[in-house]
Amino acid sequence: MQLQEDQERKELVVRTLVFTPLTIFVMIGGFLLLRNNPMSQVMTTLFAIVWGTASVLSMFYSMNLIVQLFPTKKYNKIIPFVFVGPAILIIGWYLLIPTVRSLVLSFMNRNSTSFVGFENYKYIVTDATMRTAFGNTVLWLLFGTAFAVFFGLLTALLAERSAIEKLGKTLVFLPMAISMVGAGVIWKFMYAYKPVGANQTGLLNAIMVGLGGKPQNWLGSAPMNNFFLILIFVWLQTGFSLVVLSAALKGVSDEIKEAARIDGAKEFTILMRIILPSIYGSIITVSTTIMLAALKSFDIVYSMTNGLYGTEVLASQQYKQMFKFLDYGRGSAIAIVILLAVSPVIYYNLKEFNKREVF
Amino acid sequence: MKAKVHMTRGGKIITFLLILFCLIWTIPTAGILITSFRDSDATASSGWWTAFSSLKDFTLGNYDEVLGGQRFTVGTAGGGTATRRGASMGSAFLSSITVTLPAVIIPIFIAAAAAYAFAWMSFPGRRILFAMVIALLVVPLQISLIPILRDYQKIGLNGTYLGIWLAHTGFGLPLATYILFNYISTIPRSILESAFIDGANHFTMFARLIIPLSIPALASFAIFQFIWVWNDLLVALVFLSGSGQMMEVVTVRLMNMAGTRGSDWHLLTAGAFVSMILPLVVFLSLQKFFVKGLLAGSVKG
User: How far apart (Å, rounded) are the C-alpha atoms in residues B22 and A154?
Assistant: First the structure.
């Protein structure tokens, strides 16, 4: 018995001595190689997939080997950290620490050489463009969310009662797979404008002219152009709210609905008194998720109008301050404001998490 | 029993309304699809809805130009002319694949390992660390751009594929850990216990049991992350800009096209369609997993 254990231990030591340096070599070697971009794109992709998978798995494997050299009691104490370690380190580097660093930068001047106090925040609340951005962001949050949730609920209710449930859902859901830039091009084409008299190639203006009206430059004049940009966002997000709400509708008890019908309740009453209250939680979830997306989305504005004609939003201003005007102080301050805006959701998530019994 | 309402008159009206809604939702995409196959003169002079009245205007030339790069005629040193091709959607497409696939695969195992530890091991700090993951789920990634960019400039990762993979890994990890935790924590305890009695250590457990059992959740996250990374503009602009046209991804390329060739609708629509085709195919064929990923928690910075 003792002999066998010794044998096993020897084997473990040998394996550790072989695999650990090998893992380190593969990880660092691949890292340095990829950093210099020496290969063609196809080779880089293949190499990266193999390298990424191999180094992650062999890292866990060799760390597990090393920890196994300790007695079982110690092993059980250390091993959890081996498994959560990499994820926590990466999340810490990419999200947690940057939050603190951005907070510090937001109190510094444009190239972070001196402390300026609340100067950047003062700029945010007083500058005219920033005010437009704030106002527009509120429009995005209110109307973008309201319409996406409303259309999602409407189509979910229709789909449940129609003969083409699956096809209908897929068609409304499809834009979810399209990038905001792609959606921007699609809608720029819908909104295309040509002067009076010319043949309109944009569908909306063709309809306007067909109905005897004048062609409009939809994206050119504030404040209505904001709504035409928000429409693109709604078009993209409705599918998401449809899918989540439709799943929630499936959970509403048929017995209760049937009982209400037998009691003579109208369909509308059933909707308002039974269906909506029972999917209330899902409606809140969908609304918050879409609000978060609206708050952070900068692609639509950036690719459609580049913030001209009074369409600037917070996220697009943030990008411009950082990467066009190279003002890291103001850019960071706007990022912190966006973070403050999502903090209620963070608080809510943590509260829900505290309620869970798994922990 | 669910009532078969759609056979009644009310059901027909509802189906009709839904069809109408779907038409409105699909027409914009159909418009650019049709336009991308029309030649430039037809596109500039008449609406796409008239396309089917003269079929001779259809062409594949737009895709040739967009995928291979636009043809320019330039003077050569010898006095003649030569044809050069400009930046193409074809190379951007390859570049997007190069960015996306590793950015999907690298975070999967890291997140799965963390989710396994959170779900099945007890250790000090477990609660607080998981709370951190939950909190960071919705932190806007805008907050990380400048600090990470500075780190990248210091260690030479700026403008490299490796840099953008790691960035997408970092930004995707909270969601991945969360989705996988939800799934892994529902694996029956008895399965794990019997494996431990057979002498498995945590690594064999992870590789032989947890990973194979969580394939559906891994797939959900993978598809979610695929569509997210492929369609991303911000991270690509920040970490890959300035590294030349060869590394431009489809979203950046398309945005530049919209800026410089804003009125060449025949090219722009073809470009848009090239940028959309892969996510659309992935989405349509693996819709089930994508929806599961969405339902499992889609809030992401």
Answer: 12
